Amino acid sequence: ITELKNTLENEVHELSLHYQPKLDLKQGKVTQVEALIRWTNSRLGFVSPEDFIAVAEQAGFIENITKWVINQAITDAAKFNQSAVNVSVAINLSAKDIMNPTILPNILDLLASHQLPTTSLSFELTEGDLVKDHDKAIVHLQAFRDAGFELAIDDFGTGYSSMAYLQNLPVNTLKIDKSFVLKLHERDGDQKIVKTVINLAQSFEMNVVAEGIENIESLALLAKWGCEYAQGYFICKPTPADNLITWYNENLTTKWL
Q: pTM for this structure?
């Protein structure tokens, strides 16, 4: 906690964003990337986001981290735009972030200052967080949708999913948790779950992102079943912004399937 507080106050250069591409399976090209925070501390070394995000939430620092991520992601989105890297950047937000009434105006002001459209960003939210204050969440999420942002439910299938819940939330994408995708090519049970989620999403007129793709067999299955987006190490590991620009240009003509 002490090191994280010091980083946020004095050593913000220890934080960085890496970007993982999302392959549009219909178009056969990368159209989105997910922003993933990294922290390498001078004393602790590399600290897993799962560890320090949990610490930040408990210690009351999460708002500071979210603010830094949004600022950096929009700065990088402007860099991508100037480099003709035509991708939308997905940022992870917690339910607490969404409920913060200042966050949406701040995001819109930052985008305007960089002369970027709202289509430059999208947001991913963990489904369990949204259930706790469902009605309030709907109001705040709708404000994001009305502003022109796409919203995804992250880690879908691991939380509190219900038909009524899905029907009411103003989101347009379901992101299948990687635990169902990592061994997709060899597990019948996972295949049934993933096909069911894709069919469910289509019935609600939503897109599906499958994360955790580590081989061509899984990618081919997802394309066959009509999944819209694929993300995973088989396509590209999370990488810094400058590396992503190089990777994007090197893979403009890659035939993924």
A: 0.94
